[in-house]
Amino acid sequence: xxxxxxxxxxxxxxxxxxxxxxxxxxxxxxxxxxxxxxxxxxxxxxxxxxxxxxxxxxxxxxxxxxxxxxxxxxxxxxxxxxxxxxxxxxxxxxxxxxxxxxxxxxxxxxxxxxxxxxxxxxxxxxxxxxxxxxxxxxxxxxxxxxxxxxxxxxxxxxxxxxxxxxxxxxxxxxxxxxxxxxxxxxxxxxxxxxxxxxxxxxxxxxxxxxxxxxxxxxxxxxxxxxxxxxxxxxxxxxxxxxxxxxxxxxxxxxxxxxxxxxxxxxxxxxxxxxxxxxxxx
Length: 281
Fold this sequence. Notes:
Blueprint: E1 8-16, E2 21-27, E3 32-36, E4 39-43, H1 47-59, E5 67-72, H2 77-82, E6 90-95, H3 98-107, H4 109-112, E7 120-124, H5 127-133, E8 138-144, H6 158-166, E9 168-177, H7 185-195, E10 201-208, E11 216-223, H8 239-245, H9 251-256, H10 262-272
Parallel strand pairs: 5-6, 5-8, 6-7, 8-9
Antiparallel strand pairs: 1-2, 2-3, 3-4, 9-11, 10-11
Organism: Dispira parvispora
Enzyme class: transferase
GO molecular function: spermidine synthase activity
């Protein structure tokens, strides 16, 4: 068990929604902090690392991402990042808990600003059900979920990943949070082993977020394009654009996020080998 200590300056909001406990507090050093079911989701101080990597990595791996679907992401941070890409024409966000959106719009406005963009359409409801009932396809689907417990548990099941594939356009790409390799290696193994049979190109990117457990997060990126090197963006901003648009992400950070320590490289290699088998998700 690992613990992180953040000093609370003031409790700003607390409520129990139909799905989870929601807490927002002002901290002494990290700005406002969103906590769901007792687990820190983001802080104003370091949310940029998470939001930018989970968004710009898949979008810059796609040559023309016009339609984007975001599952979860009720804080609005991913929306904020998606609409920085001029090529995007439509973004649909599916958030099951309306209360998260409402609370973040009030207490985390720098993230929730994404909800105001004219390209954004919000659907309050289950993302799993949304994909099952809609025939629309998307160029990029980002799963910005909370941990694999509570209302987000279904987003880590085999059936969910099958729905993702069915909802992708021919050159489509997905990007999913899969926790920290230090904290949840079994989950990463299971998801990788399943996806290698569903997608011809699969990779793992990392971001360093100090206020998340272990300070590191892993994201699985998978493409329908055969032999795609996901570590190399197919679209790039200029350095001036990167400095203006991003605090954390850039083309070099994109490439370096796929460089891993030896034990993690071995884990990924084992999972993506032809002989690996998935037991269950």
